[in-house]
Amino acid sequence: MSWRTRTRSVRPQAARFAAGVAAIVAATAVFTACSRHVPDPPDAEFLVATADSTFWVHSGAQGIRIQAVPMTLAHFGGRFHEVFIADVDRSFDDAVFTGERVYVRDLQSGDSSLVYDDTAIVMMAARHARSHPGATPLSADDDTPTDPEITATGETDVLEVRGAYALLEHRSSYEMPGGDQHDTLRTAVDLRTGAAATLSAMARESGAEDSNVVRTLPRSWNRKSYTLHARGAPDGSVSISLRDRTERSWPLFTVSAHPRVYWLDSPPIDGAARSALVRAFNSAASYDEAVKYAGYGHPAAKVTRAHSMRRA
Predict the structure, then answer these.
(1) Suppose 45 and one of 181, 212, 265, 298 were both cysteines; which one would form an S-S bond, judging by CB atoms 3.0 to 4.6 Å apart?
(2) List of residues 6+ apart from 7 with CB closer than 8 A
């Protein structure tokens, strides 16, 4: 019997992403209002990545421009990658089997690899097909059955990225004639191979790749012409701000815990990596309808909302 995936979608955690973008707009509005009385912000370019969002910051004489997209970014092997979640649907006319798979995509080559499969859902669907030979697999255009004999679903979230590893949480729910079952599993996966990973391996190998991950607060990075500062909030979030050499400060945004910083200015990234990031940001902009841009232009700027980014 041939199988097909009825739907495929990238599922960002839109609520947290929207909240982060709202924080960008609020912060931008503050220093826009004062923009006539402050000097140019320092030259800077970097990425800030969380488990569900990535922020691209450009700063200089023209002001500060921030692009925010619901993309889970990883960096290993000297290249940027996107970690994304796609649906898998093996449902029948009498039973529902839906889960989520985790993939990693090399931003430069565009190649994607499956690194975590919802094997329980796939195996249950196969058993159902064997025990119910008359059951009809649903096609992409078929409606989900309203009164299925079995409903088995799985959801997977990326909790954190550490170098070449991702921490995942998988939640499963089974409603069957024999009784219901609900389970939650936390695991780690090697994004290079798809193999299960141990915490000791993650700690040993991810340090070099994620040396700029925020573990303790406050934390500062002293760069050539600026300082990036991270401080904690009572709710566990992290506020990011930019400072010049005279200690003038520009608040940028607030993100969830353990953000990672990737420098794009010193040393500068090469053209291939930059083009790959531009394509990825353009593509990720279609995942969510929240604010995509916020900017501070010097000396008289305005906040721009809901600019759409098209696929490259």
Answers:
(1) 265
(2) 87, 89, 140
Q: Are 162 and 83 in contact (CB under 8 A)?
A: no
In the block, which residue shows the tokens 């299960």? Answer: 196
**Nearest residue to 14 via CA among 213, 286, 204, 270:** 286
Could you tell me what percentage of the chain is helix, strand and coil, using 3-state DSSP and rounding each to the nearest 5?
Answer: 20, 40, 40
Determine if the peptide bond prior to 299 is cis (ω within 30°): yes
Burial of 236 (0-12, 13-18, 19+ CB in 10 A): exposed
- Omega within 30 of 0 (cis) for the link into 267: yes
pLDDT tens, position by position, 249-282: 999 999 999 999 999 999 999 999 999 999 999 9
Domains for the chain: give ranges and CATH numbers: 81-207 (3.30.565)
Calculate the alpha carbon distances from 45 to 66, 228, 261 in Å. Answer: 10, 11, 11
**What is the pLDDT confidence band of residue 9, given thresholds at 50, 70 and 90?**
very low
Question: Which of these, 67, 30, 25, lies nearest to 45 by C-alpha position?
Answer: 67
The CA–CA distances, whole Å, from 286 to 58, 158, 309 equal 21, 20, 7
Q: Please state, in angstroms and rounded to a whole number, the distance separating the CA atoms of residues 10 and 17.
A: 14
